[in-house]
Specification:
Blueprint: E1 2-3, H1 6-26, E2 33-39, H2 43-59, E3 62-68, H3 74-85, E4 92-95, H4 105-111, H5 123-130, H6 139-150, E5 159-163, H7 170-178, E6 187-191, H8 198-202, E7 207-210, E8 228-231, E9 235-238, E10 246-249, H9 254-258, E11 263-264, H10 271-287
Parallel strand pairs: 1-11, 2-3, 2-4, 5-6, 5-7, 7-8, 8-11
Antiparallel strand pairs: 9-10
Bound molecules: NADP nicotinamide-adenine-dinucleotide phosphate.
The site of NADP nicotinamide-adenine-dinucleotide phosphate has 25 residues, from helix 10.
Amino acid sequence: MILLDGKLVSSFYKKKLAEEVKEMKARGERAPHLCAILVGEDPASETYVASKVKNCAEVGFDSTLIRLDNSVSEAELISRIESVNINSSIDGIIVQLPLPAHISVQRVTESVSPAKDVDGFHPLNIGRMVQNLPSFLPATPLGILLMLEHYKIETAGKHCVVVGRSNIVGTPASILLARNSSPGNCTVTLCHSRTKNLKSITSNADIIIAAIGKPRYITADMVKEGAIVMDVGINRIQSSETKSGWKLVGDVDFEPVSEKCSMITPVPGGLGLMTIIGLLQNTLKAAKKEVQPVL
Ligand code: NAP
């Protein structure tokens, strides 16, 4: 079994990004600049945003963190986003999800300039992705593609089963793996909570992408011998093995599945790290004005 090692692969990509930033600065250009907007104090969101800011610094990007109170109105949040949209010193904007219940994720997502939408969540970028036009790809699916590419995994003609159909992971991952592209050209089955006989479908998969949000949901009996297993899930569970009393596990039952499959991503240390690379690559693209979607 080959471990698809997010630490190794992300550090490879970070070195490349850092070199590119050095070259930009040597040409007298400014470094790419990411703005993260964090509403409230959700501990998981705090951790994710802190990690994004830290990774920006590691590759030489500038970053700005805007913190807003949980009680901020939707109008105030959108007005802050609009001011970042027109700030020419900022290339990319991310609004950390989840947002408080009184704020519409859809309206907020659509208020981000598509040219600065480095999370790749704006409907314009999603539409362009579907049509295989230059766009910002959603960061987690992009991280999956980069992982497949790095390990030179042939995907053409393979049966890829994606479990989970969220707008940010499962649905775009299924579209990207089905595109006439490399990685891509898979025959894709997209599964969700209403799927019947999930086990009979996953058991036929050459590649499984698990994006469910349920700890260790994909068990060894659901996986074909020699399959490639990509685990997007990040679930915090109680544990007597750690001092803190909790640990992170994926949506895949790692130990038994790893004995059966040919390749697998661990959690932590897998696709979470690749998501950050997707975000950094998108921010660099935004700084270089490589994607110019116009509404
Ligand atoms: P989500 O929006 O909650 O979507 C979960 C999906 O799983 C839904 O489509 C749901 O189906 C499906 N599902 C739920 N129970 C199922 C079942 N029993 N059988 C089959 N499908 C089932 O979650 P998400 O945002 O996509 O995130 C998924 C996981 O990835 C979470 O653990 C999250 O923390 C993690 N994540 C990781 C990263 C990263 O950087 N690695 C990034 C984002 C998310 P319905 O549509 O029918 O409800």
